Amino acid sequence: MSEQQKNMPICADAATYLGVRSPEDVKAIPPKEISSLCRKLRKVVIEQTMRGGGHLASNLGVVELTVAIHRVFDAPTDQIVFDVGHQCYVHKLLTGRADAFVTLRASGGLSGFPRREESKYDAFGTGHASTSLSAALGLARAAKLSGSNAYTVVILGDGALTGGMIHEALNNCVNDLRLIVILNENEMSISKNEGRFARLLTRLRTSRGYSSTKSALDKTLSHIPLVGDPVKSGLSKIKKGVKRVLYSNNYFESMGFNYFGPADGHDEQTVEQLLRAAKAKKGCSIIHVKTVKGKGYAPAEQNPGAYHGLTGMGQQLGTPTFSQTFGQTLTALADRNDKICAITAAMCEGTGLTPFATSHPNRFFDVGIAEEHAVTFAAGLAAGGYTPVVAIYSTFLQRSYDQILHDVALQKLPVLFAIDRAGLNAADGLTHHGIYDVSFLSNIPGLDIWHPLTTASLEARLQQLLTDGLTRPTAIRYPSGGDDK
Ligand SMILES: Cc1ncc(C[n+]2csc(CCOP(=O)(O)OP(=O)(O)O)c2C)c(N)n1
């Protein structure tokens, strides 16, 4: 090997390193060699994201899941939909894009999210959270209508489960579809996943009594020889009864899903077994797995929030960013004014609100990935006499249009929208550009829009707006980075 070859990143020749050029290659790997493939996949993902930036921790968490999916299903006939899509890197590596992986998120290179234009294996383009199940329902219905037996498989994180669209889609799931949802619980959104659904999942997972009783009953059933149908159905009723008593609130089962798990999502063989079991079962299925965000890279396992999204090499920022200026100024203002509340939709660190959350925990609200709810919740706080500041990235504010118009503006409620990441977003690309807010906010009656050009003017404007007392719906938008960008 020449010196030049030795210094080449593995990801420049990732297909050879992995020994995989298509999902067929993944299927041909003997089970005992899967863990070696997973190790190599992690190495490529770590190397590339350290160099070029990207979503490291989320991808390390889904290595075994993605391998198992490609061994059990036949993509692209079977369609795989990733929620958010930030965890699709392993999928890209296994579906003919390993050699282009070195171009990930670079201009003209592979997208950091699934894109239909990029590959026949990307069944649906994503970037914003909680759209997967609605899209998958459409894909599955289209398959059914056209007489296809294809499966549609969704990879959904527990963070994305906090978004309302998922629940609208759950409500619409119909059991004549071949739809399998893998619910990947890692207890994290970007930061710790909070709220009732997070607690529900923990409860599901930690009710070991249920799990062992269920598997004992399953074993008993399968070992009774020549069991007749009436006996079988009688036992099945007992089984359901026991489940109801021990574990009465399985949300997914009560919504009509087949529920599999909870299981260790890093045990590739088990995940394969569950996927095959779900495939064999009629109706829509949820497979609940537990994974570790950042798995296999100690710094990311210990601090998954910091390794959620990396910016790549050579992007040190010298001066405070707009987000930091916003967070620090708001915290200082809230020290003096106990009416000020801060709201984030799962973006506490990104929007600079960590100091506020620490200093004023009772006036800080992380509502999950629920931008529509965040805005109407703020409207309620304002109607109740408080001064809510809703910090949302420009791109994610798009889904709150009606709430801004109907709940805030028409009632002239004093809510301050802190619109972060206004402007182009080269690395995340198309789905993340913050360029539409000016046009969609401009036609909202009675909404003032400010656009400070420096961090100093952001600070001054916040002080002026919030010290005098906010009297009307107001938006303030600012870009990523700081003054030196
Ligand atoms: C509508 C929307 N709001 C916010 C985000 C930013 N965001 C990207 S990934 C993520 C967390 C997703 O958590 P989860 O679904 O559990 O996936 P994990 O990264 O934990 O695997 C968030 C909040 C987004 N992509 N879309």
**What gross morphology would you assign?**
globular
Q: Structural class, from secondary structure content?
A: alpha/beta
- Terminus-to-terminus distance: 41 Å
Largest sheet: 6 strands, parallel
- Using the coordinates shown, work out and report the CATH topology of the largest domain: Rossmann fold
**Domains counted in the coordinates: how many?**
2
Mean pLDDT: 91
CATH architecture annotation name of the largest domain: 3-Layer(aba) Sandwich
Low-confidence stretches: 208-213, 223-227
C-alpha Rg, in Å? 24 Å
Describe the structure.
There is one protein chain. The protein has 485 residues and is an alpha/beta fold. It folds into 2 domains: 3-207 and 247-302, 3-Layer(aba) Sandwich (Rossmann fold), CATH 3.40.50; 322-477, Thiamin diphosphate (ThDP)-binding fold, Pyr/PP domains (Rossmann fold), CATH 3.40.50. The chain is built from 22 helices and 11 strands. The chain has helices at 3-7, 14-18, 23-28, 34-52, 56-61, 63-72, 89-94, 132-145, 164-172, 196-206, 208-223, 229-246, 251-254, 268-280, 298-302, 322-336, 354-359, 371-383, 394-397, 401-409, 437-442, 455-467; strands spanning 79-82, 152-157, 179-185, 258-264, 285-290, 340-344, 364-366, 387-393, 416-420, 448-450, 474-477. The chain has a 6-stranded parallel β-sheet with strand order 7-6-8-9-11-10, sandwiched between helices. Helix 14 (268-280) links the parallel strand 4 (258-264) and strand 5. Helix 6 (63-72) packs across helix 14, helix 11 (208-223) packs antiparallel against helix 12 and helix 18 (371-383) packs parallel to helix 20 (401-409). The radius of gyration is 24 Å and the shape is globular.
